[in-house]
Amino acid sequence: MLRFLGNLLWLIFGGLLMGLAWWLIGLVAFITIVGIPWGRSCFVIGQFTFLPFGREAVSRSVITGKEDLGTGALGLLGNIIWFILAGFWLAVGHITLALALFITIIGIPFALQHLKLALLTLAPVGKVVVKS
Fold this sequence. Notes:
Layout: H1 2-31, H2 36-50, E1 55-59, H3 60-64, H4 73-102, H5 108-122, E2 127-131
Antiparallel strand pairs: 1-2
C-alpha cells in the first residue's frame, strides 16, 4: 500500500512529467533508426520513472554475471553518445525538480528519487529495472 501511495504522489511531484520526457526522447531516438537501442532504453526507464518506488535500476552484468554488448566497451561508447545528445537534458530536468522538492519536508523522498534518476540518465545503456 505504501508503494502505491508513494508512486501516486510521485506522479504529482514530477514523475509524470519526467516519464513523458523520457518517452518523448525515446520516440525521437526511434525516428532516427540508429537511435533504436537508446530509444528502447528510454521506454524502459521512462516506465520506471512513472512508478519508481519498489524498483531499482542495476547493471545487466550484475544480473547475468557476465559482460555483454551493452555493459562492455560498446556500452560505454553508447553512454557517452547518449549523455551528449539527451542524457544531460534529462539530468537537468530531474535535478531541477529535485531542488524544488528539497525545499519542502514532504518532498525530500521524492527529491532523492529524482537524484537517483538523474544519475541513471548519465549512463542508461546496459541497465535493467528490477524489483527491490
